[in-house]
Design a protein that fits this description.
Length: 123
Amino acid sequence: MIVDWTDEFDRWLTRAEEEGGHLLAVTVALLQALADLPARPTEESATFKRVRQARRHELWRVAHPFDPDVAVRIICWFPADDHVVLALIGFDKKTIGDVFYASAAARGEALVDAWLRQNGGAR
């Protein structure tokens, strides 16, 4: 899988790299899970689930098993079977809870729209 990400995600990843430790290790593991996908998911799993609040674009969240210290989530979009664009910043759900998914869907869809405009509507 080819993994690409937005500037917004890059800023979040830079902060995670600066913090280091467990947050960074979990984030790197999730990015590796994306890179290891043979194609876009067709079924939900413990790691990959659809963001149900998204209406215009099929967004997915990437998550890890329960960890008492962090709850990293990455919201992503697959423009093609072999390409994933991280459509939103990653976040630590442990500090903000499930309420974030509603705004994550709206922000993610706006980032997908921006990506489509920048790439000539390629999908």
